[in-house]
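Cross-check.
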Amino acid sequence: MRERSDRTEAVDSATGVFVTHRNLLFTVAYELLGSAADAEDVLQETWLRWAGVDPETVREPRAYLVRIVTRQALDRLRTLGRRRESYVGPWLPEPLLTAPDVAEDVELADSVSMAMLLVLETLQPTERAVFVLREVFDVDYDEIAEAVGKSRPAVRQIARRAREHVAARRPRGAGSPAEHRAALQAFQRAVETGELQNLLDVLAPDVVALSDGGGIRHALLQPIVGAANVARLLAAGWWRRQAPRTAEFVQINGGPGLLVRVGGEIDGVVAVRVENGLVTGAYHVRNPEKLSHVGREVVVSR
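Predicted model, tokenized:
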């Protein structure tokens, strides 16, 4: 009986520690994978490994758990890379409905934004892990080295290379929340009424429009580049549908976004990248397999 009681106490202790750090672990996995569903799977795998460890033997549970989740996410990221090669049309990150207070942590909000997640997609898996752990979660180099299976000097070199890569691709003159909201109001009007003039006024000359239907719902099969081309797309009826359409302002990935409904049902999410007051990126996620986390708030933290 005593042995069973000790085992129960150990499980309860392990559970308590895991729950304490769960939101952090989810955020790490999500930033590495760009997929909430895959991040949840990684958390489940992390829990199974953690449950077999005696928490009393672990000096720093947070660091230990971050190592486990990073290794699991890296394994999955390499598999996902092969799967995305055969994805139908452009691939966009899975959007999250986040709490308004996430925007108060500017660095965290930026790190989970659709625009940043797309930049992170251009990194190699190990580069992505090193960048996220160091720049977003301030993990020290020794811990990162343990997590990715590299030496400390190698990790420092990878971190420098990843920073340079991201800096060359992240938004210049990133728009304020007010500018994002103003741009989205123009999208909202286009969605609900078909009125395009306000939207055309906020599109940058080199705007890129991406939509992700995953081969399940109608979406663009190729990126549309340039304000004139996007305008032609809109004029051709990108937003036209038979059922009534509404667009509700929500917090998507730490910033303003639109939750689009058709006939009362969730149809998609719109997020934008704003630079110097103009929309340089428009992201429209319609793949129903990616919309399960926009019906309820998801907590991200660091």
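The beta strands are 97-98, 203-212, 224-225, 245-252, 255-262, 265-275, 278-285, 297-298. The radius of gyration is 21 Å. Passed to J.P. for a second look.
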